[in-house]
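Table S2 (text version). Query chain:
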Amino acid sequence: MITEEEIIEIGKFQKTHALKGELNTLLDVDPEYLTDGHPAIVDVDGIYVPFYADSVRPKGTFSYLVKLQGIDTEEEAREFVNHKIYGLREEVKRYLAEEDEEIALFDELIGLTAIDEHQGVIGEITYIDDSTDNPLFHIETPEGDTVYVPVHDDFITAVSPEEGEIRFNLPDGLIDINKK
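Corresponding structure-token output:
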């Protein structure tokens, strides 16, 4: 039996896609992690259950369409919507080291400086709310306000944990929506 201490979050199933059981998925690791035979572990009624991917195809920078073995209909896939995906902690660490992984885990984005191409420094990422279909960066501005920015491939231009920053190209007015 897999325990909570043995796992680490590596993504989230967001919603179903089409009728053949594919799931729109956010992944914090390279999609090859799943296609290389590593399980996507899901909490099913309090038990961590491993599922294996038949296919993974890109939909954006962090999002993918994942087809799990044995999940062949939209109805079956719906059971996974909004579920977090875990990997075995030691396997994930080993895989990231072997692949010299550059894709950052969500946890590694906390503390990065958020910089917009047009407005400059926005602030520091303090939290990533992935409890809904539309995850949000919580960014604390130098003035102490919190700005909410969607975690969306169209907005992110570069992620550089080694430089301590994440760069955005945000639509005009998005930051101002958050201000009082």
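Notes on Table S2: The helical segments are 32-35, 74-78, 89-99, 106-109, 174-177. The chain has five helices and 13 strands.
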